[in-house]
């Protein structure tokens, strides 16, 4: 297996572990880009999805927005924003956030809509105000699906943040892009392995969060 | 915006040529994904224990970034269209398998019993009862897979100009012609929206019993 040889060569070269182009630096940059983009996307997608889902209105509009968001090619948008706005974080954040909002928005809405209406009615009947119905009844039941939406958004962000390197920023994509230009295959494969590992780590983190936050009663059902 | 459709000669293609190439690179993988998903989904419906591990494997494959997937494949399939299409086909599984499984499972037990009572064997029951009833769910999955596939083809530009319309992005950079990037983004987005609309239309034709107003 020739790819494994490259991976081994990349990680055993000690020069890849230090300095501004070292693995720890690039990994940290990648984590920062991903977290920032996920925070913005969740900041937009979660409240809108929760409220529209709670009132059950605007589903068609949301589906339309989601389709439009998915239709915009992330990579093309990145290059376009880079040409228009120049070097910086903004050209990277715009495509990443546009990429991540649709899955969060649509799954949150669907999650809220799929909550069994009888406990919600019971909560209203007991005199709970709408905000408590939303946060104490609907949200805990909808949480597993909402988290799955956040998870797929996070994975897409982590893999897509790779292309930030094309517009001269850092992150793990640096190894892939530089390696391709330098015809340094070892570097390319090393970078690819790191991004894939980070995406898998994201899966793991979301699995752990789900174990911790989803109430056992909901998990059983 | 002069020269909006003026494609640089290094791409050795016309505007419509690029569109055709883009559609081929995006749609063939989804088709392949569908052909692979149908038997996998059927196995998952038959053997319930199989579904969680299959879901896990597709999710893990989906977690491999497109660029990383492309460059690893270069070693085997070179800087070609195939290298772009294989990952796209693999990604489509993560959407299509659950869509088909949910669709086929949503067929009511009475309907299946009625079909059996009418003398339909398992094969005819699958093709004439289960699959048609699952069409809305399958199309919903196909829509997500198709749109994201069309968007992802552009990344193929990075592995030796294999990104069809995405190749315009590189030319926009090296020739300082931003209108080419606008062209690439807009055309790709329009292709995705048109493909999505076509699939909605296909669903309407295939499921004449469904109410018309539900657009989702």
From TrEMBL, chain A:
It is found in: Cell membrane; Membrane. Gene3D superfamilies: MetI-like. The chain crosses the membrane at residues 37-55, 157-177, 189-209. One of its GO terms (biological process) is glycine betaine transport. It comes from the Bacteria. Residues 27-206 form the ABC transmembrane type-1 domain. This is ABC transporter permease.
From TrEMBL, chain B:
One of its GO terms (biological process) is transmembrane transport. Keywords: Cell membrane, Membrane, Transmembrane, Transmembrane helix, Transport. InterPro entries: MetI-like, MetI-like_sf. The keyword Membrane applies. It comes from the Bacteria. It is a multi-pass membrane protein. PROSITE patterns: ABC_TM1. Pfam families: BPD_transp_1 (PF00528). SUPFAM superfamilies: MetI-like. The chain crosses the membrane at residues 26-47, 54-76, 82-101, 133-160, 180-202. It is found in: Cell membrane. GO terms for cellular component: plasma membrane. Residues 19-203 form the ABC transmembrane type-1 domain. Belongs to the binding-protein-dependent transport system permease family. This is ABC transporter permease.
């Amino acid at each position: 297996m020739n790819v494994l040889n490259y991976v081994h060569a990349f990680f055993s070269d000690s020069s890849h572990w230090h300095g501004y182009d070292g693995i720890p630096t690039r990994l940290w940059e990648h984590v920062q880009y991903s977290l920032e983009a996920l925070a913005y996307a969740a900041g937009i997608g979660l409240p809108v999805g929760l409220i529209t889902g709670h009132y059950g209105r605007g589903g068609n509009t949301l589906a339309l927005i989601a389709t439009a968001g998915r239709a915009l090619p992330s990579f093309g948008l990145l290059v376009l924003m880079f040409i228009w706005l120049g070097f910086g974080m903004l050209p990277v954040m715009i495509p990443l956030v546009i990429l991540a909002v649709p899955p969060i928005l649509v799954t949150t809405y669907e999650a809220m809509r799929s909550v069994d209406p009888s406990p919600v009615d019971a909560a209203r009947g007991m005199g709970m105000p709408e905000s408590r119905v939303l946060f104490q009844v609907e949200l805990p039941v909808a949480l597993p699906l909402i988290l799955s939406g956040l998870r797929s958004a996070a994975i897409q962000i982590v893999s897509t943040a790779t292309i930030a390197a094309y517009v001269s920023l850092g992150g793990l994509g640096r190894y892939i892009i530089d390696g391709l230009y330098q015809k340094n295959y070892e570097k390319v494969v090393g970078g690819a392995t790191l991004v894939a590992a980070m995406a898998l780590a994201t899966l793991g983190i979301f699995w752990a969060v789900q174990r911790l936050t989803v109430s056992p009663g909901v998990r059983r059902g | 915006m002069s020269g909006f459709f003026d494609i640089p000669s290094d791409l050795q293609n016309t505007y419509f040529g690029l569109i055709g190439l883009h559609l081929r690179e995006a749609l063939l993988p989804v088709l392949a994904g569908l052909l692979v998903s149908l038997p996998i989904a059927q196995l998952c419906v038959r053997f319930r224990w199989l579904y969680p591990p299959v879901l896990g494997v597709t999710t893990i494959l989906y977690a491999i970034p497109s660029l990383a997937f492309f460059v690893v494949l270069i070693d085997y399939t070179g800087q070609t269209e195939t290298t772009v299409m294989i990952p796209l086909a693999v990604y489509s599984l993560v959407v299509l398998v659950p869509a088909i499984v949910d669709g086929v499972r949503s067929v009511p037990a009475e309907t299946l019993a009625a079909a059996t009572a009418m003398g339909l064997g398992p094969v005819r029951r699958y093709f004439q009862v289960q699959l048609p009833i699952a069409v809305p769910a399958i199309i919903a999955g196909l829509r997500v897979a198709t749109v994201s596939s069309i968007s992802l083809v552009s990344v193929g530009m990075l592995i030796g100009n294999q990104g069809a319309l995405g190749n315009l992005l590189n030319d926009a950079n090296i020739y300082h012609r931003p209108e080419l990037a606008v062209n690439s983004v807009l055309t790709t987005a329009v292709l995705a929206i048109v493909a999505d609309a076509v699939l909605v239309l296909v669903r309407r034709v295939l499921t004449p019993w469904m109410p018309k107003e539900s657009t989702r």
